[in-house]
Amino acid sequence: MGTVAGKRSTEFNRPERPDSTQQEVGTTVTAQRETAHAAVDALTQRAEREEMLFNLFGPGGVARLVGLSDDEQDALCQQQLASFHTESEVCWITEPVPGDGDCFFHALERVAGPSLARVTGEDTAPKALRNAMADQLEQDLKELNQAVGDAEGTESLLDKTPYLVALPSASSRTQELTPEQTMAVDQLRHCGSWNNNTGDLFAAIASETFKLRIRVITPQGPQIFGKADWPEVWLIWRPPGHYDAIFAHVRCSTPPARPT
To answer: In the 8-state DSSP scheme, what is residue 166?
Structure first.
């Protein structure tokens, strides 16, 4: 016999699967869907975290993207400080620090010396602060490496220390640092080193190391690191990449002069 419109004249019925087989297939499909949804959720959370890191840890890069000159960025910082005075009726005083590659640490020492000394001892020089932060970063990275393959454990660590997502990660579970992670820790330990990925994370790592709530005034607005109940200190990020100290809690009756 022939066919009509390309269709076989003889039809075959597909044999029915036993009920148990159908249940197994249904369970497998459901599990696959749940796994797919979990993967999408994880990717979404990572994208959101990376966007947050982009906004929090890269003020210089963000400023360049919107095409602002150094003077325009600095003007935005000054406007923010002026608005804080108007809203809170407190003076703000900036204290310049050396631009020697350790400006963040000089500025932090100016505003948080006693809090830093509780961690480092009496020595609050940049080298001591760098070593304390590098020890913290090394510990965090090792914990992250040991959680590879444990999605829940990894998410918990990244929620606690979100700056880790901006650093190299291990591809398999290990108790040691990868070469790229070792380089990041070494960059943090080395005095004068700042123009690198680890340098963008100084405020975040310092906040966790010294249990400080650090408010950084940037051209894009204040960026805040740390828990609300930690002692708060203020820094200002000046273009093209310099930190100064801010003392913003001295009550005054007249508007302050423009900071130098």
So the answer is: G
* CB contact at 8 A, 165 and 144: no
Would you mind telling me the total number of residues written for the chain in this entry? 260
- Predicted TM-score (pTM) of this structure: 0.69
**Alpha carbon distances (Å) from 49 to 23, 25, 56, 76, 226:** 39, 36, 10, 26, 16
pLDDT in tens, 99-143: 999 999 999 999 999 999 999 998 999 999 999 999 999 999 999
Check: CB of residue 129 under 8 Å from CB of residue 136. no
The 3-state DSSP class for residue 142 equals helix
Q: Which residue has the higher pLDDT, 146 or 91?
A: 146
Q: Which pLDDT tens digit goes with each residue over 234-253?
A: 999 987 789 999 986 555 55
32 Cβ contact list (under 8 Å, min separation 6)? none
CA within 13 Å, CB half, 103: 23
Domain 22-251 has CATH 3.30.300.10: no
